[in-house]
Amino acid sequence: MDAELFPRERAEIAPGAVHLPDWLDAALQRELLDACRRWARPPAGLRTVRTPGGGTMTARQVCLGLHWGPVPACPACGRAVRDNPACPGPHQYPYAYSRTAVDGDGAPVKPFPPLLGDLAHRAVTDAYGADACGAGPHGAGAPPPYDIGLINFYGADARMGMHRDGDERADAPVVSLSLGDTCVFRFGNTGTRTRPWTDVELRSGDLFVFGGPARLAYHGVPRVHPGTAPPELGLTGRLNITLRAGGL
Ligand SMILES: O=C(O)CCC(=O)C(=O)O
Ligand SMILES: [Fe+2]
């Protein structure tokens, strides 16, 4: 890694989208990596996600709390999603949340651990300030809690295309934690997959939070830089943990 004289600083990439470099210390990165390794084991462990077009995602994924994946058949017309793009029903939404790994081994998804809920709340508070959380414990009138963790594992050639995180029903900010190799994280706009966008370098330990006007912005990972993980972490590749409130 190139030498750097100055620490990297907090940056607001777009209104509501905040990058906090080096947010996780080395011990917490190690603890999260160990936990990711446990979560990635079967049942309902790391899997390859099929896309509605018949391809596969290059980043492999494991889910906690709720399972996110392709909708196998449309409840409105009963056909596989990619076979009937004209269906006005759930075909419009080729991905959904479920309680079991429907496109994996079919096992119940592992529970969402309290550690990740605590981290999500701390992350949002650090990103926006004390009262901005937008999700909380259950209770009358309280916003829904963080209850979904998606963990993406990127090998050297893995990517993630521009997309929106739009399958949740709560508007709490998405919290994203990076471990291992550095990547280019592309943060775009809410209207199109195309420019304008800003490319941000996310390194091991970085936090990125997007909420408010940025909650539904397109984003993706066009590139991972292999071999850039901190050697003491002991990870080859990149892990990303995104935390969301489902409101489902
Ligand atoms: O890997 C990343 O940094 C982004 C992951 C992501 O956008 C997602 O899981 O929806
Ligand atoms: Fe995303």
UniProtKB/TrEMBL annotation:
PANTHER family: ALKYLATED DNA REPAIR PROTEIN ALKB-RELATED, NUCLEIC ACID DIOXYGENASE ALKBH1. Keywords: Dioxygenase, Iron, Metal-binding, Oxidoreductase. Residues 144-247 form the Fe2OG dioxygenase domain. This is Alpha-ketoglutarate-dependent dioxygenase AlkB. The lineage of its organism: Bacteria, Bacillati, Actinomycetota, Actinomycetes, Kitasatosporales. GO terms for molecular function: dioxygenase activity. The keyword Oxidoreductase applies. Its cofactor is Fe(2+). Pfam families: 2OG-FeII_Oxy_2. It comes from Streptomyces ziwulingensis. The keyword Plastid does not apply.
